[in-house]
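User: Hi! Is it possible to get a structure for several chains at once, not just one? Here's what I have:
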Amino acid sequence: MRLHKISALAGVSILAFAACSSSGASTAPSAGGGESAAPPASLGELKLGVTLPLSGGAAADGQPTLKGAQLEVDRINAAGGIGGYTIKLFPLDHAVAGKYNEQQAAQDMQTFVADEAVIGVVGPYNSAVGKVQIPISNSAGLTQCSPANTNTGLTKPEEGALDLRKDFPDRINYIRVAATDSLQGPAMAIYDYDTLGLKNLLIVDDVTTFGKGVADTFQSKFEELGGNVVLRQGAPADTTDFNGIINSQAVEASPPDGVYYGGVVTSGAGLFLKQLRQAGLDIPFTGPDGIVNGSVNDDGSLIKIAGADAAANSYGTIAAIGDFPAKAEFDAAFEEHFSADSDFKTPGAYSGPANACAVVLLEALKAAVDGGAADMAGIREAVRAYASDPANSFDTVLGPISFDENGDTTVPFISFYDVDTAAAGGADWVFKEQQSFGE
Amino acid sequence: MSAATSPAATSPRGVRSRIGAFSDRHRSTSVFFGVGLAAMALPLIVLLPPFNSFSGQGVWMDGFTIAGIFILLALGLNIVVGMSGLLDLGYAAFFAIGAYTYALAASPFTGIEISFWPMLLIGAVMAAVFGIMLGAPTLRLRGDYLAIVTLGFGEIVPITILNLSRYTEGPNGIGGITAPSIGDFRFPTTGNPWPYYLVMLGLIIVSMMLIYRLQDSRLGRSWMAVREDELAAAANGINTVTTKLLAFALGASTAGLAGVFLAAKLQTVTPNLFRFDVSFTVLAMVVLGGMGNIWGVAVGAFIIFMIQSVLLKQLNIFFDNVDVPILSDIDFLQYQFLLYGIALVGMMLLRPEGLFPSQRRKRELHTEEDADFGEHGDPMGASPE
Amino acid sequence: MTSSTVTAEARPNRFLVARRSGVGPYLFILALTVVMYFVLGPKQFVNALTIGAIYALVALGYTMVYGIIELINFAHGDVFMVGSFVSLFVLTNILGATGPAPDLATIVYQLVVTFALTMSVVGVLGVTIERFAYRPLRNAPRLAPLITAIGISFILQNVVQLIYGPSPINTPQVIPPSARVDMAGVSIGWINIFIIVTAISLMIGLQLFVSRTKVGRAMRSTASDREAASLMGVDINRTIAITFLIGSALAGAAGVVQGLYFGNITSALGFQSGLKAFTAAVLGGIGNITGAAIGGFMIGFVEVTAANFGFFVWAQAAVFMILIVTLVFRPSGLFGQQLGERA
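Assistant: Yes, the chains can be modeled jointly so their relative placement is included. Here is the combined structure:
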């Protein structure tokens, strides 16, 4: 008897919630809003998927990035849509308990693939997620544009990308606007060695796809230049106590004059920096885009966790263009558009790139529609072909972008930032210079 | 589970007991038809509103396939925790072993290409071997110690996989794993969910049939004896060490099976997929579903997975649209573990036999002076339920 | 189901310092300590002692609870974590501290208030958990309270996350890390000295309490034989509650120390540190107070040594291996007595 009651109750509640909620499993931010239930693949509406970690500790990464894409979608819709279609933003959150989850990401990609109205997907943010999603999107021919993935193995055949594109190795469906770690690591190595004059480094990575990868490329370049690595250690993602490394034998024996941390702040970069300063090591703290994640006021940022004083003398790279021509305008437009939001009102490091990705995909969509594609499958393929065609150039807020035969951007930029404790709104990362590695 | 003896046998009760009696005698057939029917009905149900407004049938079935993986895991853990009373907190380790076994056997990383079908068996055996390796020295420990040891093992395995990059690709994980194929037909990654769905269905049916057989066998009864009172069981001539070892091994093999399937489905494996959250989630499924009750944990696993992937997301959307002061600010997905925690505590205090209890378990847990006691009749079980 | 039955022979009393274990383990520890000093060097040695002190304080709670009701309190690690957040609240919201205190008097004042409040609150939390989650299940099959404890662990962790968010939070370091003293040519932080002295004092206090007071005697007798103790007039419920009170209060103290030392806390603290502290308790001989204390220090040394010689990634796994190896080969730990294991 009880069994019947329980299952009835469960069934009724599911139905009740279903009846009241909107279509699609979207977790759109408050400003974007979910619309009322509409049948999928209606001719009036096409969807731009977004796959990002949007909740918990990862929200600081995902939410500003999502909004970068949203800015473009809203702008296009305000201008009348594309070819008579309105564009709907369709974000799916693959964070589980605050951290990106590959299994959920795979399921989300299956959802995107199965929804015919989805013409392309912006994301993901973490390289580990890219590894799981590319086989699925490649098999379906659905275009993915990542604003932030930096791991080389996602695009370059010699690094294993063909394994990910097993079903259709020659069909490029994954493009990215971020530079790869094969550039990011060495760029910082050169900066550390030449500009900062560091010769003996302590290198720590967070034992993830991204962190280890970028630390490896950093180390080989640094040693190639003649630098000396005092100690290279991995500190797994949930480490909270780095004193063992800081006070270790190797470090005591030959004190380093700088540190490189390969990883992201959620893996412990902030704690590491804080403990370094506590141990009296006021040496330059350098790292990749994983540590450049916001000002002293942003929850979960390196500067906030370590404290503004500890964060002084820190340097980081961003695998994207830092000072793009339209940056001031972009920032202003972003802040104005999202001024009513409860949080994440200012652009993050990857808001611009996400916006660029949206621009690329939507321009490809325009070309597809103008070119006569009418059914969903045709549109998807036309979008893919156009976006990944090396001959096409896209006018984005980051400047003109095009993609090479592997899907990598032909204008990779590495930008250098450092922490300015005296910045206007509170200690923050400020842009210093950038380097182009394009042809 | 005999036919109702109470004089005023109302017809629902009569029908239920008759079905119960039938399924007792023809276990395998009823598993086959029961699970088979449910699995055929599900793709049809999701074509109806409101389910079809969430996602298409393909996506639903993909979700069910993943749910199937958790059902297998729950069935396996049920053998260890539910039937034998051994608390295993590191179950995800065996899951990982199965997955990496297939990954190493069928990916460009090693260059070997062994077919999926024999690997199912090999993966299960590998996991069972590890189960025995873990169990042999530790099973003589008391329940609580065993729990901690298994927890430690559950942590050591992903850490080892993570650090031994040369053999496991470390944090990058192994990608490009070959999908299963029948003859020339290779299982599609996207588009057609039926191949994976049917294979998972087959795995569940076969596993359930075997587990039911085991439960009814001498080994199964030894498990329950050990669960109830190890000392008495030993005094009755049961070799408790072998019994517990077999529970461990068989439970692990089911996880290994699920692992091989996961690797074949996702075509990538990373250490991140096998952390403590997974062990905890599966444990929650077993506890909530009804420890010891085979179909109970299967249903419980399915329900919890659906809650996690569908209901909580829909709650978020619902409260996004309807403005309720505190509830609208909560991201339900983030707090699923809080909900599991509350559910576990609530369950243990109020209904430790789970949502779908086995009658025997219910009697075991409520024979002492208890508020529920009055409801359930006398302790000798003269009147069932 | 009765897995905690009284067996034919009297159960050994493991709660006290095991006099029967002899002087062997003590000599071993002494030798190990000296070796470690030379292996690690004075700075790392002090580090290890400090971290070990924190583990020891948490391990004491595990060991006391296990000794008295034979339950591994999974939630204990998270009680420690809650303690660290309570101390954060006390320091920032009640005392208004934002960093190192200006003078010695303020330091003492802030520390006393923080310790007193945190230990009380956390102690009460522990008693409440016992009363509502463990006591009803005292006669249930062993699995039930274990599972409940896991559930409580997750509840505590997530509630703290709900309130404070998932990112690490900075705590005021009342004793500044820069305040150092020169001892035999080595610069040691005052905070390290404070932590080690506090931990050892609390442990000695606990030992005296358990061995000299009436309540302590009640605890020992309940641990030894619950039914006999109740027949002798010991109020079992009250005794168990007091055990939880003290064990949790010690975890609370560890939480305060964690915040003071690292200047940073996170809701994930409970799971990792809890497991390591439990290993410490097992290593020392679960149920044995001195054992837990020494076990805690030993685990601190294991971690620091692994890190020192470049095996940081394996430090966590090493601790778990120690756990498994100890349980398999010497389940009674260093100081426990040889317990007959059930088949």
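The longest strand of chain C covers residues 180-183. Chain C touches chain A through 31 residues (CB under 8 Å).

User: Great, thank you!
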